[in-house]
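Annex B. Sample input.
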Amino acid sequence: MEWSFDEIVQRLGQLLAELVTPAIYYQIAVLLVAALGTWLLGRVGGNLLRRRLLETTSVGFRRFALRTAQRMLLPVVMLLLILFGRGILLSRQAQTTLLDVAVPLLVSLAAIRFAVYLLRKGFPVTPALKAWENIIAGGVWVILALHLVGWLPAITETLDALAFKIGESRISLLDAIQLVGLIALLLTLAFWVSGVIERRMRASPHLAPTLQVAVGKFSKFFLIAFAVLVAIDAAGIDLSTLTVFGGALGVGIGFGLQRITSNFISGFILVLDRSIKPGDVISVGADDTKYGWVQELKARYVVVRNRDGVERLIPNENLITSEVINWSYSDDSTRIKLPVQISYEDDPEEAMSLLIEAAKASPRVIRNPPPSARFMNFGDSGLDLELRVWIDDPENGIGNVRTDINLAIWRLFKQNGITIPYPQRDVHLRPLAPSPGGPERGGGPAATQGG
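Annex B, continued. Sample output.
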């Protein structure tokens, strides 16, 4: 049954008039009792289902059934209680107008919640995607509710009458609502599909990490753009009318979104040139304070995790324009230099052999290339030596290797009588000769004879 807007207003007036009749009081009482019973049974049943979920170790059908029951509990319980109350009223030949509307609404709510849960089981879910799901589910339920009560045609006709023109094209409020709804629906599907593609790419052992990231990024970008264009076309909006908005968007990107666009494009450059990939050990900046291994390559930033467990979000643009040291770009082998100073009274050759022995005692120092020791300088306080070692697992940290080797050096030096000198300076004092014809340094003023 289709109603006009005037008929909807008239029907609302009739409903308000029916609210003062005893028949409507019985239906409201049934709804209130059903709501109270749903709340009580929902608390008891919800706690029971949560305990069962915590106790079960199954990841198959049993867990799926418990999760489904948890999501369907409230609408199904309320539906059963309303049907029970409706049956009692019908047996007494009472009106059930409100209950006749509530029953299909609850059925549709249960069906929508179950459909959304099935989609979540089939696709990966993010917090942003959960928000979209709630909006879409709520919108679908409202549209279905309006359709069930017969008000949808009149409302769509009223929304279509509120329109404005852009050039030769007419855009109504209904078109705008349809566009937003279609974009939300198609974007949700695009995020779901791109999530599946990314998950499959990461699970593939035959693809390089950079190729996995590249396929995930390109598929996500393509699906989002495709979803927006399809939504605009499906809403009946001529794409040529969006040239004005496209120009304004270009100006906004040029001024307000310049850094965001730069980071977005830089992310594609990093993926295409394969300079940085997940698992690489990098340090950013000349001071090497931003050190860690790459966790993820995002659209705007790169996640770098250091040895303290702190994750830095470094903008992609910084990795393009700044100096970046990739410790595992082409080879995981990394050389570490450890400067050591010994006394002038010690034998440097013996000290160098002890340095190599200390390096070989560390399990993380590789044997090829072998560790080496060098005599670098005659320093101010002692002889400057340098130990050079290679490791092939920089992602496990550099400082711990230095610590292990330095402790081994200290123990070997102590056992063999090699001393590490304190910083020292020799200061020589010599007297200054008096200047010719002048008073001696340190003397007071010349005495004068007074008259």
